[in-house]
What does this fold into?
Amino acid sequence: MATKDNEKITLMALVMMIFTTVFGFANSTVAYYLMGYSSILFYLVAAVLFFIPFALMMAEFGAAVKSDSSGMYKWLEVSVNAKFAFVGTFMWFASYIIWLVSTSAKVWIPFTTIFFGSDQTQRFAMFGLNATQMIGLLSCLWMVLVTFVSIKGMKGIVRVTSLGGLAVTSLTAILLVVSGVVLALNHGQFAQPLQHVMTSPNPSYQHPVGLLGFAVFAIFAYGGLEVLGGMVDKTKNPEKTFPRGIIISAIVIT
It folds into this structure.
């Protein structure tokens, strides 16, 4: 069923959707813990060699293929053939099932941290179930809730992603301000000596295998943009709006 013009995604809504999908705020803290300031270089290299080219390819596909069936399958079918498209799309969906299960279990950690100041998920034992079983049950309920919102149509999805994008943007702005305040209170003293900026303070990430592992993490941190492939036909003026949204988001996220 075609989406009505007044229900289609605007440029700002698309940008917020991409922010919610791609930008992981927690990735920054994990990166600093693992690699210190040298994580900046890894993120920049991953952006230049992977994320920005990937975003440009998606923008080109979005502008060229804007039919109702647009998305990863259609892009692969147009580029290669139907068999390759089926295999690629099947692998993508299979990996997303694993990711959804993982995310549904981890989402309760920030929820408990908000209200209790620390991770309390190991104390979730109740109704005769241990903590692990209870987290599994809550994860199933979370997936049911996400599915329920998704099948209600684009309006609900856009509301959630717009709120998520705004939250992520606000978090980043707050982080920048607070970091500046902390740096000023420390009289300009950085947390890690700048002469060691190319060395990780974490002993596990000072050898080639550890560096390679973090490189994979840096690339994975930019994942998720391909999810928006199915939104092309639901975007206003897709041949212009979709590429613009992709490129703007890619630059800002980088």
